[in-house]
Write a structure and sequence with these properties.
heterodimer, A: alpha/beta, Urease, subunit C, domain 1, TIM Barrel, 2 domains, 5-stranded antiparallel beta sheet, 5-stranded parallel beta sheet, 11 helices, 21% strand, globular, B: alpha/beta, Rossmann fold, 4-stranded parallel beta sheet, 12 helices
Chain lengths: 431, 317
């Protein structure tokens, strides 16, 4: 199937027709008339979004999300590539599991699903998983992470950083010193003290960031810091970059918008790891993302079934779904506040993550010959989040009822339309 | 008054005094020939206790019974709760049984608020202690006890000086007392080693001291908190003896208090640890008054939340 996307606005302000054939952009101009026409008048066309931090729950917890339902949520959120975290059951710590996840993604066909491999066997933090086997598998894993758990042993972290150099891999660290966060429930501060919930101090995150930055410098390897949440963490990454250390950092949409005082009613929909922090932290994260200290936005999409949230705070699971709200939340936090341009957003949510992960067909500038992984957005529309309309199997969104800017209309994956007028092509993509 | 009592924050200063005044009325009635009032006849109060607390449970139970309510005691031990039934399922079971009020004690901070907010049940919820969050009826009975000892503060606690000593970090009694006493106008000083003071205390409108001896002379009320020796295992302090030397109420410290100062403790006491036996049993101690006032306060709370008929005139019915 061929398409002409007509009258699309590009980041440089030009309004063009973009023709798609054989999975790539075949022509850019005016008055094009190739294949099926998609009207994009007044809408913005950007390269498809890329997420380096997605929990898909398959294999093992298909009651909360499958690769297929997570892929649909991704397409609805404008993502053409997502990265499945390793904390499944069984853990994605072997070539077999990562190949299974990769294959499930291809079969679903709503976005490219790139598995992330575990750093340690069973995420137990004791011994390295077979990183090389995962790298050489059909899934071609390059990002390794024990996310959900921290690789807290400094020697093991050092070895992991060194080992992945053979295939230009990267270790994505969930920075959380376990000894400082035993039973922790929320950010330690004014609100936790009032609520009587066990605190999760910023230093527990920052101590690991500081250590790993120095380890990465020492062994000359690539380090990625997952979901930065504290002002101090932003300062540490800024210091590392100034020193020329090869570190990249990520922030989630929810940490760019929400603060820990939302916990005050004990609604576990706001329970997340790492926890929501203070306004001062949120502002530092926004500044860090705007000035490039923080390289990318990662959703940390973490689906949980209702029973794991409809309970007392202490018993509830950590995590929030985020694929379908990510772009709009970032627009609200960064563009509506005039801290970033749309070009900056496309860098942080598509170009930079694709580059870090080496997803060659994603995050490309829109030009003839580029892979047709595209997202078309009505930047002037607003919408209200309704948990019951999420494509994700789980409904644990902290943005329920919130009005958000920017509506995703169409998503093209390798030249096929997977989202049309905001609706998933459930009968399969239009090819 | 609100439908629920989850936190002292649910009460205005006037509403708090109203509860104290109601308790005073009930005290007068209790001294009369007719101890039992018909006010809550036909209403059902459930004591839902996920943590062992015989003292608090019987206090609520006798309060409800003195108001003629039907009382169901539901203890987690040996029930379906210990077999993995969720708070939600338990709550909905109670709802189906027609509970008008649920008195909940739970190990998780916020459990009472979840019960009230989640839409699981329609009954009034009374927080009888949730994790390390709050224990509002304890604070109310403490305020009532203070007021009965210091009549000059019957309309406002302005000028009253209170020190709360011990494991502030893990104490729901301390949180509720700080909120209530400061709301009523008292000056509150928290005394503990720094490890047992929450980092967010800057927001609490209190003074903080690490030195018990330096505050003893300038207070009217000394409130000692129970300290669990398991805190020692987590390095909150090095040893029981060291804690006791620094923060325990021994006879020397007791004697350095003002002549009219009172000593309080929410119980159960660790005699010889945070409080010596002589201090606990001294004439300054109001520990037993706290216990008996607990029933009056809980009667007042039940009465106000469940909107019973007027107290006066009904006594003789």
């Amino acid at each position: 199937m061929e398409f002409t996307i007509a009258n699309a606005r590009l980041l440089d302000g030009s309004v063009v027709d973009v023709a798609i054939a054989n999975g790539v952009i075949s022509e850019i101009g005016n008055g094009l008339n190739v294949g099926k026409k998609v009207d994009a008048t007044k809408n913005l066309m950007i390269p498809g979004l890329v997420d380096l931090h997605t929990h898909l729950r398959e294999p093992g917890r298909e009651d909360s999300e499958t690769v297929a339902t997570g892929s649909m949520a991704a397409a609805k959120g404008g993502f053409t590539a997502i990265s499945a975290m390793a904390n499944t059951f069984p853990v994605a710590d072997t070539a077999g599991v990562v190949e299974q996840v990769y294959r499930l993604g291809q079969e679903a066909g709503f976005c490219d699903v790139f598995p992330i491999g575990a750093v340690t066997q069973g995420l137990a933090g004791k011994s390295l998983a077979e990183l090389g086997a995962m790298a050489n598998s059909k899934a071609r894993v390059r990002i390794f992470s024990d996310d959900g758990k921290c690789v807290s042993d400094p020697l093991l972290m050092r070895r992991a950083l060194e080992y992945v150099k053979t295939f230009n891999g990267i270790i994505a660290q969930h920075a959380q010193e376990p000894a400082l966060t035993v039973d922790s429930q929320m950010n330690e501060g004014i609100v936790s003290s009032k609520l009587g919930l066990v605190g999760w101090p910023a230093v527990a995150e920052e101590a690991i960031i500081a250590r790993d930055i120095l380890l990465a410098e020492h062994v000359g390897s690539r380090l990625h810091i997952c979901h930065l949440t504290t002002a101090g963490g932003v300062d540490l990454v800024r210091f590392a970059k100034a020193r020329g250390i090869n570190v990249t950092a990520e922030v989630t949409p929810h940490h760019l918008l929400l603060t820990d005082d939302l916990v005050s009613n004990y609604d576990p929909v706001f329970k997340v790891n790492p926890p929501l922090r203070t306004e001062k932290d949120v502002l530092a994260l926004r500044k860090g993302l705007a000035d490039g200290t923080i390289d990318i936005v990662g959703t940390d999409h973490a689906p949980h079934p209702n029973e794991d949230k409809d309970c007392e705070w202490q018993s509830a699971a950590f995590g929030m779904v985020g694929l379908e709200t990510a772009l709009s939340v970032v627009v609200k936090a960064m563009i509506d506040t005039k801290m970033m341009s749309w070009a900056d957003l496309v860098d942080r949510m598509s170009i930079a993550p694709a580059k870090i992960a080496g997803y060659a067909r994603h995050g490309q500038i829109i030009k003839v010959g580029a892979a047709a992984n595209l997202t078309i957005i009505d930047t002037t529309a607003n919408w209200v989040v309704d948990r019951n309309r999420l494509a994700s199997k789980s409904k644990n969104t902290p943005f329920e009822g919130m009005q958000l800017p920017a509506k995703i209309l169409h998503t093209f994956l390798n030249g096929k339309q997977v989202l049309k007028d905001g609706a998933i092509m459930n009968g399969g993509a239009i090819e | 008054m609100n439908k629920h009592l989850l936190s002292i924050n649910d009460l205005s200063e006037d509403e708090a005094f109203e509860i104290l005044n109601t308790a005073s009325e009930l005290a007068k009635i209790s001294d009369g020939p007719m101890k039992k009032l018909p006010t809550l006849r036909g209403r059902t109060v459930v004591n839902l206790f996920f943590e062992d607390s015989t003292r608090t449970r019987i206090s609520f139970e006798s309060a409800a019974k003195r108001l003629s309510a039907d009382v169901i005691n539901f203890s987690a031990k040996g029930s379906s709760v210990s077999k993995g039934e969720s708070l939600k399922d338990t709550a909905q079971t109670l709802q189906a049984m027609g509970a008008d009020a649920v008195v909940i004690r739970h190990g998780a901070s916020g459990a009472a608020q979840r019960l009230a907010d989640s839409g699981w049940i329609s009954a009034s919820v009374i927080n009888a202690g949730d994790g390390t969050h709050e224990h509002p009826t304890q604070a109310l009975l403490d305020a009532y006890t203070i007021r009965s000892k210091f009549p000059e503060f019957s309309k406002s606690f302005k000028g009253l000086r209170v020190a709360i000593v011990g494991d502030i970090l893990h104490s729901r009694v301390a949180r509720s007392n700080v909120l209530l006493l400061t709301k009523l106008g008292a000056t509150v000083t928290l005394v503990a080693p720094p490890t047992l003071i929450p980092v967010g205390v800057v927001d609490w409108n209190v003074k903080v001291s690490y030195d018990l001896d330096s505050v003893l002379k300038d207070i009217d009320v000394l409130m000692m908190l129970r300290v669990q020796s398991e805190r020692m295992a987590n390095s909150f302090f090095p040893s029981e003896r060291e804690y006791s030397r620094g923060y325990g109420l021994d006879i020397t410290r007791l004697n350095s208090l003002n002549s009219n100062a009172i000593v309080m403790h929410p119980g159960p006491m660790n005699r010889g640890f945070e409080i010596s036996a002589e201090s606990a049993d001294s004439h300054k101690s109001v520990v037993l008054a706290q216990v008996s006032n607990g029933v009056l306060i809980r009667m007042a709370v039940l009465y106000q939340l469940l909107g019973g008929a007027a107290l006066t005139g009904e006594v003789s019915v």
